[in-house]
Amino acid sequence: MVPILQMQGITKTFPGVRALDNVNLTVMAGEIHALVGENGAGKSTLMKVLSGVYPHGSYEGEILYEGRPARFSGIHDSEAEGIIIIHQELALVPLLSIAENIYLGNEITRRGVIDWPETYKRTEALLAKVGLKESPQTLIDSLGVGKQQLVEIAKALSKRVKLLILDEPTAALQENDSQKLLDLLMEFRAQGITSILISHKLNEIARVADRLTVLRDGATVSDIERDAITEARIIRDMVGRDMAHRYPDRTPKIGEVLMQVEGWTVHHPQHADRQVIRGCDLTVRKGEVVGIAGLMGAGRTEFAMSLFGRSWGQKISGKVTLKGRAVALNTVSDAIAAGLAYVTEDRKALGLVLDETILRNTSLANLGAVATRGVIDANRERKVAEDYRSALNTRTPSVFQKVVNLSGGNQQKVVLAKWLFADPEVLILDEPTRGIDVGAKFEIYSIINQLADQGRGVIMISSEMPELLGMCDRIYVMNRGAFVGELTRDEASQERIMEAIMAADGRELRVGGEV
Amino acid sequence: MSATPQTGTGQGASGGVGAYLKNNMRQYGMLLALLAIMIFFQIMTDGTLMKPVNLTNLFLQNSYIIIMALGMLLVIVCGHIDLSVGSVAGFIGALAAVMMVDYHIHPLLTIILTLAVGAMIGAAQGYWIAYWRIPSFIVTLAGMLVFRGATLWLLNGKSVGPFSKGFQSLSTGFVPDALPFVAPALGLERLNALTMLAGVVIVAVILWSAARARARAAAYGMADEPFAFFIGKNAVIALAMLYISWLLATFRGVPNVLVTMGILIVAYMFITNSTTIGRRIYATGGNEKAAKLSGIKTERLTFLTFANMGFLAALAGLIFAARLNTATPKAGVGFELDVIAAVFIGGASMSGGVGTIVGAVVGAFIMGVMNNGMSILGIGIDYQQVIKGLVLLAAVIFDVYNKSKSH
Q1: ∠ CA A143-A149-A153 to the nearest 5 degrees?
Q2: Do B292 and A349 touch (CB under 8 A)?
Q3: Choosing among B294, B400, B407, which should be mutated to test the A contact, i.e. which has the most A CBs within 10 A?
Q4: Both A403 and A446 in a single domain?
């Protein structure tokens, strides 16, 4: 085996911060090399150095690519050498077609005019390679995240990729889409394409990686060979300590019924005749953490948002009882007043005002509590923000920091602070640990446990089954808009959840339900 | 440099005055730019700029732009734009003129009715923008055409005037001197003692409330501003206010419109800084979806913002008509551009969620002083336009540059 890439002694400093400190990374030709580390460990910076986003000369150290020193002064240079990065946030133009996106900036032309027949022909070939059955003329807009990811990979293939770098490719994907993507990576490996895989999902890494490099605080901590890769070992190297328990302990003290939802039915906001949520019943008790498991598109977020003041869908019917009293949750303010809070899965787009300070985001959902007759008491507001900052251990120099500058885990804490300040009885947490590193995840879990201990009810939606199994007292399994299973902590396992989904799918197909 | 110990958590590496100023460059940059521009023209015009008569004129000339900039700031912070304000101002001026001159309706009643009409025009536009989600650019572009046409139709293409003294005093009147005996007593030929007294009182109130705010913040352990900076800043503000009062007092006193404008500026500063409604407008502009999911009624806020803009445009239209003593079909043409430019020079963001009332007012004064100064210097209208355009561009570039540096 020969190394395709050797990054030696890479040091990169920003004003006041040493982002990378003498990092070494060696990737063998034709392997899948995993790169892991907590958020802020320097993975993205290292990849930006490699791809020339930070040009040669702005860092110290040497990059050898295919045995020769590489001095890239921009992404164009590295792409010309076959190094392609696929970022976490996909860089596709939604209203252009698959073919247009794949050849964007790289169009197939004849005397300056785009050769469409040739473009479509080649696109079809690329789509076949990545196993995407779509017409090249399909708009990106109409594809799900999983398929968009495949388009990105097809785009990389069109550039004759030798070293493919995937930054958190499965973060937004469902279990089965993730599996498909990983299978594809292994296929590429068979064809001799080298991949660097950046991921937080340790089980995936354990499955496909040939070797793995752990970064911590901008330095290389370890290189682990395939045989030695275990989740425990990776976690220990990442956080620098053993984490015997990935989920904090809690002795549930479950009380009377807090919230009851009966026959919740919701229709699609654009297609009134399409039922998205079908007659869901759900109960949450005091001090209980209830999970909702399901595949992407099962309708979990839609269920939660429609419940939270009809923020999603139309023609909503069903009954909600809070503490034994029927409540009408017609607007978000109704829902908040009734004691409900919804922590969104998409904190940047739906949870935070990014350009505002921590202070202003914290008070946003309950401004009345820091105001007298509509006039905000600046000092009281600041006290509240400071209190939540220390209670949740948000790492920031000041509450006047804009949230856009915070890491994912700290942003999530600000969203939590906002909803805790609204003092809800029932919190719906939608993917509360998405895109957050292991250390911060543990802190979020601890907060969730505290909330339950205070006698609140928690509904937790997550695509990571181990997380649900580790945290929840009871798990509802959702599939195609309906609850198809309910498992207690003792009954629940990944297999049981998948079985419930499969069984429901089987029933659907037998009765000829829509697919 | 200040030797004051740092209290509270501090803003990162804020050490002394210099460091604090550097950290808050965006906040004070435009104010310093205004000062520099004023000093420049003061020198270039051999002191004409700050002559009492010219200063009074400066206020009169820019009052309607500033009044509309207050509303426009809210619109832009909310994430929208209003292109119709010039036409609405012109239309309301025309409507008032027709009501008073052709139908002999009492000026006071006219003012009340036309302000209500202005608010309704704003509300009508806001309705489509807020509840039907039609882009504000399009709705207000339509409004701009509609009300320009309506103005021509109302006036039949002619000018209508003149107005009664009562109505004119909306703009050209001065607050009468209640203390006429002071000037002779001091042996001064001409001094509006009431103006001077008002100036002194206002300065005292400003200083008192600044000191109180600082003391309260300190009580919570949250006074970040270096003490020397606090003193310096307030001293500059106090001296500037006293100087302006003196200049006005030695001419004809305080113009009525300055009182109107001053009250409005203070009121809108209060709304944007200290009220829940103001805060919610910022959140709506910053991230509408997140604001909505936090229980904020974003549609209603957007609607109110436009209704408010219509009201202020109407007020500006009345003041402008009163100043010219006639309503013309051309009144208000191009005002929207000056107003929008003032808000952006003042540091507001095109994408919403960012901007301050003080910034918008300073932005309006930057435009106003440049207009005035260049006119005194006899610079042609052609060059004036070019220079104003470049200043707008430079101000926004400065803002973007500062922003990228702070990240």
Answers
A1: 125
A2: no
A3: B294
A4: no
Q: How far is CA A472 from the centre of its chain?
A: 20
The answer on A392 and A275 residing in a single domain is no
Torsion of the alpha carbons at A369, A374, A378 and A384, rounded to the nearest 10: 10
Is residue A344 situated within a structural domain? no
Do residues A234 and A108 share a domain? Answer: yes
Residue whose token pair is 């996106």: A101
Which chain A positions have a beta carbon within 8 Å of B349's beta carbon?
A: 355
Domain boundary among A239, A265, A299: A239
Of A332, A368, A399, the CB nearest to B292: A332
In a 3-state reduction of DSSP, which class is residue B160? Answer: strand
* Token reading at B332: 């208000």
> Tens digit of pLDDT per residue, chain A (515 long)?
788 999 999 998 876 567 888 999 999 999 999 998 876 678 888 999 998 889 988 899 999 999 899 889 888 889 888 999 988 777 889 899 999 999 988 888 888 899 999 999 999 999 998 888 889 999 988 887 778 888 988 998 888 889 999 988 877 677 778 888 899 899 989 988 999 998 877 788 888 999 999 888 788 888 888 888 887 788 778 776 555 567 888 888 899 999 999 999 999 888 888 888 999 999 999 999 999 998 777 889 999 999 999 998 889 999 999 988 999 899 999 999 999 999 998 898 999 999 899 999 999 999 999 999 999 998 899 999 999 999 988 888 788 888 988 888 889 999 999 999 999 999 999 999 887 777 788 889 999 999 999 999 999 999 888 889 899 999 999 988 999 999 999 998 878 887 888 787 766 555 544 43
Which of A349, A371, A382 is opposite residue B222, by nearest beta carbon?
A382
Total domain count, chain A: 3
Q: State the pTM of this model.
A: 0.80
Could you give the dihedral angle defined by the CA atoms of residues A374, A375, A379 and A384, in that order, rounded to the nearest 10 degrees? 10
- A217 and A235, same domain (yes or no): yes
Helix (H) or strand (E) holding B119: helix B107-131
For residue A125, give every residue at least 6 positions away whose Cβ sits within 8 Å of its Cβ, in sequence order, or none.
none
Nearest residue of chain B to residue A312 (CA atoms) = B293
| Structure-token pair, residue B35 | 């000062």
Domain assignment present for A76: yes
Task: Give residue A284's domain range.
Answer: 245-339+424-515
Are A112 and A20 found together in one domain?
yes
For residue A333, what is the nearest residue in chain B, using CA coordinates? B295
User: Could you tell me if the ipTM is greater than 0.85?
Assistant: no
Q: Are residues A206 and A106 in the same domain?
A: yes
Verify that A235 and A118 share a domain, yes or no.
Answer: yes
CB A308 within 8 A of CB A340: yes
Contacting residues of A for B286, CB less than 8 Å apart: 353-356
The alpha-carbon gap from A482 to the nearest alpha carbon of chain B, in Å, equals 24
Alpha-carbon gap: A205 to the closest alpha carbon of chain B (Å): 33
